[in-house]
Amino acid sequence: MKRLILTAITLACFTFISQVDAAAWRTCNGNKIKWGSNTKTMRASNVSFAAGGSYLSALQTVISRVNDNPSKFNFNLVTGDTSVGFDNGQNETWFTNDAAALNGAPAVAFTWSHCYWFFGWHYGIDEVDVLFNNNVSYTSSSNKSSSITYGGSFRPFRTTATHEFGHAMGLLHENRYYNIMGQDWDFIHANGNSTRAYLGEDAANGSVILYGTTTGNMQDVSLAHHKYLGTSGEYSTHQSTRLLNGAGGNLASFTNSGERVYRVNKGQSVRLELTAENNGKSTQNPQVGYYISTNNIISTGDQNIGTGSLTLTRNIPYTFQRSLTIPSSLNSGQYYWIGAVIDNNNAIAESSGVNNATYLRIYVNY
């Protein structure tokens, strides 16, 4: 969420725009409202983000993930700020109980911008302050079991912070695609028992539209077991991807430890649904391997049950289905995990490979 305070002289003109491309931002007389330079310093409160504390560590990780984008823009994080406040010429972040400022939101990015005519148009972002609601049950952990996304009790701080720093970059809410700028807590990657917050393809594309493409070699493809569901006001909503039968119908399922488990038969044809993203600077054609695992960490060392390839431009996340066969060699009455690894042959020089694999859980019927 955000608050926008406008400073105008003589004439101001702001318009919300939606493009065929993913992502959204504000404009001034057709010009994108953004920072005037490609590096901005964000100062973290020494109380909210204490030295050596888990929330400072989580915030540092978030800044790193936001900076892992294919544009020229990045944040520089300074810690130990002793006097945070609004409209003081500094970009700052802190936790607060200020109900009036938060207006019921889990977090808010207050953005001060200018847009005026004075012998030519002048426009841009002047200051951003990111506030987190001290009354929200956050977790700074990446432990999957603690997150509301997977049946836990806590909102993942890292996804909310990534959303707010997307605002700080200049992005608005998005309701058309699977996107961190929509509903943030289930825009998340998981493989194993840990979750990973990330900026994602849609917001990465927005960063490039605002600031241009980096000259560095920033490439990154990823898989997630969530996808676009629909619209809730300004926000996109998301849901888990599915395992379907060979005809595309629903498989019987149940919930265990906060995750959907699909009942399958040995030798059965199924369709695995996942979301692929190109978070990097250029089009990629990654190979994808499909696997069965005896645990929730999908890797190339697991039993291979298929291969394929995708063509991924950098624009909109791609939810796809792949037909596979459940191996007849699996044990009846046992849990397994079916999943995929994108770029399983390591053909792409990626900035991160830890987001390349994900899964759905299955139970083999007797």
TrEMBL record:
Transmembrane segments: none annotated. Keywords: Signal. GO terms for molecular function: metallopeptidase activity. Residues 1-22 form the signal peptide. This is CARDB domain-containing protein. It comes from Aliikangiella coralliicola.
